[in-house]
Amino acid sequence: MARRSELFPCDQATLDAYQGRLKQNPVISKTLTMRMRIVHSWLILLLLAAIPSAAQTNTAAAAVNQGGKGASPAVPPAYSNPVIPGDFPDPSVIKVGDTYYATGTSSEWAPHYPLFTSKDLVHWKQLGYIFSKKPEWTTASFWAPELYYYKDKFYVYYTARNQQKVSYIGVAVTDDPAKGFTDKGPLITMGTEDIDAFVFKDDDGLYITWKAYGLDKRPIELLGSRLSADGLSLQGEPFSLLKDTARKGMEGQSIVKRNGYYYLLYSAGGCCGVPCDYNVRVARSKSLKGPYELNPANPILHGNTSWMCTGHGTPVKVDDKRWFYLYHAYNVKDNVYTGRQGMLDELFWDKTSGWPYFKHDNSPSAGDAATPEWRDDFERATLSFNWQWNFRAYTPDAKLNGGKLYLSGNAIKPNTSGTALCLRPLRASYEISTEVANINAALKGLVIYGDDKATAGIGVKDKQVLLWKETDGKREELPGITLSDAAPVQLKIKVVDGWQLQCSYRTGNGAWQQLPQAGSDANFLDGRFLKQWDRSPRPGLLQQGGANEAACFSWFSIKYE
C-alpha cells in the first residue's frame, strides 16, 4: 500500500502549517472537513470502479487459460469428458513449469506409451511416445507408466513383461520428453508380479510404491521402498503400506500429503473388459509407512449411467492449489470398443473430516466431448503419431513418398494376418475409408483389428474385392466381386456400435457398392469376436502378402457418427 506522502505529494512543513491554521479557525475547519468527506466518498467510488468484479476476474482468467499471451494452466477451462478420448488406460500426469505431461498404457501396441502435453489439463496434443522401440529386457504388456520430474530430469517408471513373461517395473530417463527416453533397465523384480509404480517425494527423500502378490495365493499388498537420490535404484528393505484383506483387489495407487496426513488413493475391483466394477478408494495415515485407516465413505469414485469402471488415476495440483484427478473409465454405451478413456475431475477435501471426495455423487462429471474427424494424406516426412501396430505379430515397413503410403512388413510366426497400421477409435460408431492405388497379388485394404488372431475387413487382391474375417486364427474369405479394370479402388467400412461392420467399395466417382451383395444373409459382418480384454479393437490399413508386394494407399480418413 502507498504511503500518505506518496498519494499527496507535499512536504511535511506545508502540512504542519495547514493543520495549524485549521485549529485557529474552527468554522473553516468544519467546512473543509465536510468538503473532504465528499471528496473522500468520490475517491472511494472511483477506486471501486477501477477494481474488476469477481465475474470480470473469472472471465479474464478463463480467457488466459484458453491461451494467448501470458497463458497459464492455473484453472482448467470448462470441459467435457473424456479429455483424452479413446483407449488411454492407467493415465499418469505431472506438471512441469506451465506444461502438463500425460502418458498411459499401450499394452500390445507400438510405439510404446503415448505421450501427451497440455497447458490447461483439457486440451491435449500428442508429443510422441515414451519408447519408439521396446527396451531389450521387455517382451510385452506395456502397462501403467508413471511419470515423475526431479532435478531437471523426466523419469518414467513402467510395467512390462520380461523374457520369462513376468511383469516387473523398469525405469527410463530423459532431459527432453520430445526426444524419447533412455531405458535404465528393470528396477523392481521381487516376486511373481510387480506392477503399477508411483513415486512420491517426502521430506527425507524419494519413495516408490507398487502393487505386489497379485498372482499369489495371498492378499495383494501395496508396497513401498526408498529410492536412491538419482531415482534409479531401491534402498533398504521394502515395507507394506496396505493389505487387501477383503480380497476386493488393490492397485493403481497414488499418494497426496496434506495437513499432516498421507492420503493413499487406490483402485479396487475388476479393471478391464465387461463386466467390470473398478472404483477408487482412499486410506490415510500420519506416517507414510502406516498404519492406514480406510475411509468409511469408500468408494469415493465409481460409475454412473454414462461411465463405468472408474479408476487408476493420478492426482495433480494446479497453480491455484486445487487438485484434479486424471483417471480412466469405459463409456457405458461404447465400452470395450473404445477402451478405457482419459477422464478428468476435481478432487475436493471435506473441511470437517479432511477426507477427499468427488462431486456428482462421487461419479464422473457429465459431458460428451466433441470428436474430431481425421484424415491422413501421407504428405508428412514421417508417420503420424496416430498410427500404431501390433509389435508382437509383425514389423511394419511403412514408406511415405509422393503423397502415398507404401505398406508391407515382416510377419513374426505364427502370425498370418498380415501387417496393419491402426489408430485408437474415439467412438464406437465411425466410418473409415481409403483409396488403394495399386494392383498386385497382396491383399490391401481396410481392417478392424483386435489382434493377429482376430481381424476383419475389406480389401483388394489382384482385381478382386473381397471381405475376410479371422477368428481364433482361422481365416475365412467371403465371396467378393471381380473388377473390370485396374483403376484405383476406394474402400469404406461403416462401424456401428463397435461391432457391426458394413463394407463398401467403388471405382472412380461411381456409387458405393456394399458387400455382402443383395441376397446374402446379412448386410454386415459381425465383429463382436474382435474385442480384447485390456484394449480396444482398432481400425486401420492392412497389407497381407510378400515383403516385395507393398500396398499403396493414397489417403486414409475416419469420421465419427
TrEMBL record:
It comes from the Bacteria. The active site is at D90 (proton acceptor), E251 (proton donor). The chain crosses the membrane at residues 38-55. The record marks D196 as: Important for catalytic activity, responsible for pKa modulation of the active site Glu and correct orientation of both the proton donor and substrate. Pfam families: GH43_C2, Glyco_hydro_43. This is Family 43 glycosylhydrolase. PANTHER family: BETA-XYLOSIDASE, ENDO-ARABINASE. Residues 375-557 form the Beta-xylosidase C-terminal Concanavalin A-like domain. The lineage of its organism: Bacteria, Pseudomonadati, Bacteroidota, Chitinophagia, Chitinophagales. GO terms for molecular function: hydrolase activity, hydrolyzing O-glycosyl compounds. SUPFAM superfamilies: Arabinanase/levansucrase/invertase, Concanavalin A-like lectins/glucanases. Keywords: Glycosidase, Hydrolase, Membrane, Transmembrane, Transmembrane helix. The keyword Nucleotide-binding does not apply. Belongs to the glycosyl hydrolase 43 family. GO terms for biological process: carbohydrate metabolic process.
